[in-house]
Amino acid sequence: MTPAGYFLEHLWLIPLFPLVTAAVMLFIGRRLPNATVSVLCVGSVGLSFVFALGAVTQLLSADPEYRVAQHILFEWLTPGQMQLTTGHLIRFTADWGYLLDPLSSVMVLVVTGVGFLIHIYSVGYMGHEGGYYRFFGYMNLFMFSMLMLVLANNLLLMFVGWEGVGLCSYLLIGFYFLKKSASDAGKKAFIVNRIGDAGFILGILLTAVTFGTIRFTSAGLTNVAADSGIRQALEAVLGTHALAAGAPVFTTIALLLFVGACGKSAQIPLYVWLPDAMEGPTPVSALIHAATMVTAGVYMVVRMNAIYQLAPLAMNVVAVVGMVTAIFAASMALVQNDIKKVLAYSTISQLGYMFLALGAGAFAAGIFHLMTHAFFKALLFLGAGSVIHAMSGEQDIQKMGGLWEKIPVTAKTFYVAALAIAGIPPLAGFFSKDEILGHAFETHPGLWAVGLATAGMTAFYMFRLVFLTFFGYTRADDHAQRHIHESPQTMTIPLIILAVLSVIGGWIGLPAFLGGNQFEKFLKPVMPRVGLEAEAAKAVPQTSPTEYFLMFASIAIAVAGIWLAYEFYRTKRFAPEWVARKMSGFYRVVFHKYYIDEIYDALFVNRTKDLGTLLGQFDAKVIDGVGVNGAGWLARFGSTLSMWWDKWIIDGLLNFGAKLTQLLSFPIRFLQTGTFSSYALLILVGLAILLAYYGQHLHVVLRGAR
Amino acid sequence: MLPIGHYLFLGLALFIIGVIGVVTRRNVIVILMSIELILNAVNINLVAFSRLYGAVAGQVFALFIIADAAAEAAVGLGIIIAFFRNRETVLEDEMDLLKW
Q: I need a surface site. Which of A1, A170, A568, A673 has the fewest CB within 10 A?
């Protein structure tokens, strides 16, 4: 039975609500009071959440293998005839359509749910800030874009959302645009993302010319060709043996798409924008740079998992990049002193974890960690925001301390989140992380070992943060101390809800021997095995002793990390300064973030600037010098010629006519003396002549008069 | 009653004085005055002949000419004053704005 119902029929409404309020904010937001802005913007996201919840409920009412709802609103782009790599001519189209399946169900609930909580939190957090309507306008635009990304039924529409979230990220990082570092960070995020997007769009194009479609699946559609979805086209291609698993084109597509994912999800080498993105307001960091947008890359890779399954080389690249990013970012998080920077590097590290899972073929585990991570990382960021709020804007953990008593709700929820991310059972992070490590161990023990080390470092830096922030003596200055206060309820209630989710969120994905992984079973229809013979050898069922051992190892390393942090920063039995001195060279490199920013500056940024200078000189010398000035000289030369023509030929003709007249008028013109007296005299003379001539007849005239 | 010749001689004398004034003087005001002399010479002739022939038409003509002379003097002087304000001169040979 295919799922049906009001909410499934109206999937398109889910992204529409925030779009409408974003438009309202854009046009008349300035004139609305803050209360109206809050109601409209938070309400629209809440409405989206309700609709998403309704749609997912209706989806769940169907049998597992039929849980797909796809609605095409209209044909969006119809470029017409297109030649495929196979030589076939096809009519290519891109729809404006929405797809809800188990995978997008998870995403849409996380995005609207966590997004809703963060919106509520923002009402309290941004209440005293200027540009309140602008903030919520951008946030709602972000929600729209993110929901488009998640609900799109094809790659190109997904790309629209993908670019939209990138734009909103740029706008919100640079929210305090008068601050130079904030606007610079916005630009950096935007530009680094462009690099990834270039790869993504190439991947889309290659997909289109290879399969003739960019629709993810044709499931749930009745009036289209059966193989008009990428997954179905893939099966058809494999069925006719036109391409086999591991074909170079699969690897190329997978790697190009992964470049896009690297940009958006801040993986090596494109992770550099995310730490700087912390210049934005804290709710933005929570929503965009922790819970939703940065996981878009993970979502996209899982969405395209059929292709990845056929490209083992690309899978290895994904796994290795994820692994290296995870441990690399974690090492940088160890020494950061800015509370948000620690969380930023932690986010990069956790995203690396997700990619490690995807690379190991554990797509469901990656999405599972994405979801739990959304809960506890959003909570950590919101908690950090609450701390910063209490500390009058201070972000340096070296100037905090002793906040446990003063802001109890924030402190306790933050503590729960820290436990969850550290991987302490039975909190959410433990299950998702354990799932990833289990799959990593199956793929390669090396992956598992690095993942385990990362887990230990995660526990260490999170509890370093907790101990430095909430315990011990306060190191804040007097002014900040006097203002310490717990945040308003609009901020603490989302914290509490997220804390509850961080605790119970993992229970839907219990390991197999503890009752079976419901989450994986739920996602199973989205990621069927493609190319069965290749997979058969790999599917070795785990034995329980191995699972217990892996689980014990991850608990042990988490506890060890926490214990180490405790000894360093609580009891002070070990002095961090001593370690820093002992390994001063290494410490300095890590503290300066491996000088990656400096290296990028030297290699790319400054070279780009050099190119700009070069082009500028080309402009000044060649374009301006030869082109513009040359044209100027030419115009002046032409006008000199024209002037000469005017002066000697045109005027000359005129003057010739005048001279001729002057010549011909000789000597009559001398009569015209211009002297009045001479005229009068001439008249008199004329009169005298007339009289002299007619004088003899004068008597006749006189007589006649008589 | 004086014979007509006396009147005609007086008219002729006035006429010649007027013409010489018009032709020789540079000051426009003097020229205007000379024109008045010429007009009055004509008036004397008209009145004299009117008396000689006993026809009233000549005297009527003289009256018309007096009115005409007054109007002409008013317009002429007005022009001269306006011109003097602009050029600060009333000499006819300096009135050469239209000359090329």
A: A1
- Listed in sequence order, the residues at least 6 apart from A204 whose beta carbon sits closer than 8 Å to its beta carbon are A155, A156, A159, A214
CB A458 within 8 A of CB A349: yes
Q: How far apart are CA A260 and CA A246, in angstroms?
A: 21
Q: What's residue A537's pLDDT?
A: 42
* DSSP secondary structure, A78-93, as one string: EEEEEE-TTS-EEEEE
Give chain A's largest Cα–Cα span.
165
Chain A residues close to B55, C-beta within 8 Å: none
Cβ pair A382, A456 in contact under 8 A: no
Model pLDDT, residue A389 = 85
Contacts of residue A156, defined as CB under 8 A and 6 or more positions apart, other chains included, come to: A76, A77, A94, A204, A214
A706 interfacial to chain B (CB closer than 8 Å): yes
The list of chain B residues with pLDDT below 70 reads: 1, 99-100
SS3 B55: coil
Confidence band, pLDDT 50/70/90 cuts, at residue A596: confident
Reported confidence tier of residue A531, pLDDT bands at 50, 70, 90: low
Instruction: Number of A to B CB contacts under 8 A, please give it.
Output: 18
CB A212 within 8 A of CB A89: no
Summarize chain B as % helix, strand, coil (round to 5): 80, 0, 15
A318/A261 Cα distance (integer angstroms) = 10
Rounded to an integer, what distance in angstroms lies between the CA atom of residue A111 and that of residue A288? 10
Q: Is residue A576 reached through a cis peptide bond, with omega within 30 degrees of 0 on the bond before it? A: no
d(C-alpha A362, C-alpha A580), whole Å:
38
A250-254 CB contacts, 8 Å cutoff, 24+ apart: A250/A307, A250/A310, A250/A311, A250/A314, A251/A311, A251/A313, A251/A314, A252/A206, A253/A203, A253/A206, A253/A207, A253/A210, A253/A304, A253/A307, A253/A311, A254/A203, A254/A304, A254/A307, A254/A308, A254/A311, A254/A314, A254/A315, A254/A318
Give the helix/strand (H/E) hosting A456.
helix A445-470
A702: pLDDT strictly greater than 70 = no
Pairwise CA distance, residues A318 & A308, whole Å: 10
Residue B25 CB-density burial (10 A; 0-12 exposed, 13-18 middle, 19+ buried): middle
Find the mean pLDDT for residues A557-567: 90
**pLDDT for residue A538:** 47
Residues 6+ apart with CB under 8 A from A42: A116, A119, A120, A123, A136
User: In this structure, what token pair is assigned to residue A46?
Assistant: 């809440």
- Closest CB to B23 among A674, A677, A706: A677
Which positions 35-64 of B are in contact with A (Cβ < 8 Å)? Answer: 53
pLDDT of residue B82: 93
Minimal Cβ distance to A675: which of B31, B53, B93:
B93
**Mean pLDDT (whole number) for A621-635:** 89
What is the number of other CB atoms lying within 10 angstroms of the CB of residue A578?
10
Q: Two tokens at A199?
A: 């790869």
Task: Write the residue in A674, A680, A706 that is nearest to B23 by C-beta.
Answer: A680
Which residues in A lie closer than 8 A to residue B19 (C-beta atoms)? 680, 684
